[in-house]
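Hey,

The postdoc asked me to send both predictions to you directly instead of through the lab channel. I've kept everything plain text so nothing gets mangled by the mail client. Protein one:
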Amino acid sequence: MANIKSAKKRVLIAQRNTERNTAFKTSIKTAVKKVLACAQSEDKTELNALLSKVYQLCDKAVTKGILHRNTAARKKSRLTKAINKLAK
């Protein structure tokens, strides 16, 4: 552990931010799983709503600096491809 007061504070802030970022990433993963589960059913309106929620979460993660913009784009692209594959 650091000896300087400001360094100790930075350690605590880093821990808090790590927990927040992990929780946000987990919520994205959960939303993706819900979309994939819904894609196997035939409810298109619910699927579109859930897909829009995943897109929103990914975009929000980019603006908050949790995900890189290319990572979010890759997640959205792969999810869309998977849905289209299941729809066939």
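Protein two:
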Amino acid sequence: MPWKEQNVMESRQAFIDDYLGARMNISTLCDRYGVSAKTGYKWLKRFKEGGYSGLADKSKRPYTHSRQLTETQICNIIRLKKEFMDFGPKKIHNLYSRSHQPEISLSSVNRILKRSGFTKTYKKRRANPLEHKSIILEANAPNDIWTIDFKGYWQTKSNNKCEPLTVADQYSRFILYCFPLAESNGGHIKEVLTVLFKRYGLPKVIKSDNGPPFSHPLTPRGISSLSNWLMSLDIDIHRIEPAKPYQNGKHERMHRDLKALVQIGPRLSMKEYHESLKMFQKKYNTQRPHESLNMKFPSEIYIKSDRKYHEPSKDVDYPKDMFIRRVYKSGEIKYESARYKISQTLAGYQLGLKYEKDDLAVYFCDILLGYIKVELKLFKPLKAALQLPVNEV
């Protein structure tokens, strides 16, 4: 007759049953079950303390170890998370390591936040490979590219529009400006940029979308009064392609944080929104580490530009082989006793003209606006999609 197979727990219970039945002494029992007397007495002790359930294996984890987190450390991690609810484990770990000793591991922070219910696991979004076919202009140093955009407006307590204008350095993520404007027109943006240029210097490129006042849909190459002013300061204009916000992804990511921390919630007064945006800008620049910056703050990376601001002139320098013409208030230029309509946004600026084959090419700075059909006395703007040339940065 074959032996009946038993698992470990069943063997221990049988050992106790035989002992309780007084069928044999402890030494004989231990020999029968193939265990030492020490083990046999241990089973008897556990049975007396916890019954049959006390015979189960206990955890081999040590009660204490040299690197076990203290209650104070755990409380400090949770306190940081409550202060920065939009930060994940990596950023919380970085902030903790900056201000506390001894350091703790990232896995410990992740485990504490997960057990405390502060982090959730999300399914990773599969990237669309078609999204990355477009060329995205990237910066290699501070002030190579500034990004500018309006955050979508929301209503204040008094039903007014709060529509912040945001300007940021693309390389360092440093927010240069983050406040609502009285009106979202080119004149007000020009005033803001003038203050920023005087404070931080000039960037090489400014990146924006194709909406007004950054671009004008009815002018050659989409030029606007604002873009003309920027080009007169020797700043290149780069506009992302329509309906492709991922080409300005870093700025859009910052807008997502702004929405979560300022826009969402009970309505506030305009003054309170001003203070909230001011606090958001300060925390983003000085308390938010970025993985792409090796977990440094934007304020630790950004430096002012060495290109100083100067009052721009509408007298543009062109090569000697070009004819110079100034644009009238009507938006026209005169060439060989004929007038050609260009754009009123260029009123007062000098344009450069030169023959290219049979047509007269019209340039503003280094931007080709279109051609003049001299024999037909007609200005023909370029019909190509707007993408002003940008110097290498």
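Summary for protein two, as requested: Residues 201 and 305 are 5 Å apart (CA to CA).

Thanks,
C.
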